[in-house]
Every structure is written in structure tokens, then in C-alpha cells.
Design a protein that fits this description.
single chain, 186 residues, Rossmann fold, 2 domains, four-stranded parallel beta sheet, two-stranded parallel ribbon, globular
């Protein structure tokens, strides 16, 4: 909704193993915005197919989300599309904050929210909204051991490249973590 008319006409691009891709594909179909998503080879086929059903142009490239992102940003054929980052984007983080609001509306006496950490946009938005509404609520982030890039970044105090091993938590599998509470590029 924050795109200019020109950006809407040209379309958007993202790199995603599935969850961000699905959200963009669905919203793009609702708003008439062309969506291209670069998905790594490990992206679940059901997520790939569902993105296609929503009308997204899907490009399979890279062994993990980091390689998919590099391709999305560097391929000359994709220039002119607006890159929508699934974790490091103010509007995306604000959107995920609505989940924190909904959770506390449904369970007002909630004491703990457990949130997966992939790129970090989900936990950033949920934590921001939930802690604003209820400063006492504890927000706990979880990530797969086989892709612990956020933990590695916190230990190092800056973004690092972490080892990526196969995991059932496909939407959380990446290789580079960011420092701070905003999240990681996992």
C-alpha cells in the first residue's frame, strides 16, 4: 500500500523460502501488483505452488535464502522491480506488529509470546506492538539449531554468516544474522 503508482505498475520482487513469498503473492493479487519471488531450491513445493496460484512469477535459484536474495538484487533482468525485504522493512515490521495486537486482544492476560526468528521482521513487529500494549509481556524468540544465525550474530555483536543445515523450519533457514533486536537474515 505504500508503493508509488510507478512501483505498483512495475511490480515488486523478494527473496523468500515461502512465508514472505506467500504474503506478497496474495497481496499482489489483491492489489493488482505484479510479484516476482526468488525462492531457494529448498523451498517447499507447496509454498512454491501456492505462490504461483496467487499469480506470482517464481524463480528458483540458490541453495539458501541468501543466494536467492543476491540473485534478486543483482540479476539485470530484475532491475526496476521494488525489492520488498521480508525482515528489514519498516512497513513489513509494522504489518507483523498487527499479529502482536491480535494476540493480546485474544488473550489479554498473556504473559509470554513465543515467536520464531527467521529474518527478524516478525519478532520485531510483534515485540514492538505487544510490549507497547503490555510492557510486562515476555517475548521469546526461537530459531532452529541448524540455522542459528541470530544467536551467532548476538554473540559476535554484528552480522555474521552462519552455517545452514537442512531443517524442517524451512522459513527460518538462511545464513546471515543481524545484530540487535531487529532480527537476523536467517
Amino acid at each position: 500500500m505504500s508503493l508509488s503508482e510507478e512501483q505498483r505498475r512495475r511490480g515488486v520482487i523478494a527473496a523468500s523460502a515461502g512465508n514472505h513469498a506467500l504474503a506478497l503473492a496474495w497481496h499482489g493479487s489483491q492489489l493488482g501488483v505484479p510479484v516476482t519471488v526468488v525462492m531457494p531450491t529448498v523451498a517447499p513445493m507447496t509454498k512454491v505452488q501456492n505462490c504461483r496460484l496467487f499469480g506470482a512469477n517464481i524463480i528458483i535459484h540458490g541453495d539458501h535464502i541468501g543466494e536467492a536474495k543476491d540473485y534478486a538484487l543483482q540479476d539485470p533482468a530484475l532491475q526496476g522491480l521494488t525489492y520488498i525485504n521480508g525482515y528489514d522493512d519498516v512497513e513489513v515490521i509494522a504489518g507483523t506488529g498487527t499479529l502482536g495486537i491480535e494476540m493480546l486482544e485474544q488473550v489479554p492476560d498473556c504473559e509470554v509470546l513465543v515467536v520464531p526468528i527467521g529474518g527478524g521482521g516478525l519478532i520485531a513487529g510483534i515485540a514492538l506492538a505487544a510490549k507497547t500494549l503490555n510492557p510486562a509481556v515476555q517475548v521469546v524468540g526461537v530459531e532452529p539449531r541448524r540455522c542459528a544465525s541470530y544467536t551467532a550474530a548476538l554473540r559476535a555483536g554484528h552480522p555474521v554468516t552462519a552455517e545452514v543445515l537442512p531443517t524442517l523450519a524451512d522459513g527460518l533457514a538462511g545464513s546471515e544474522g543481524s545484530e540487535g533486536s531487529e532480527g537476523s537474515e536467517c
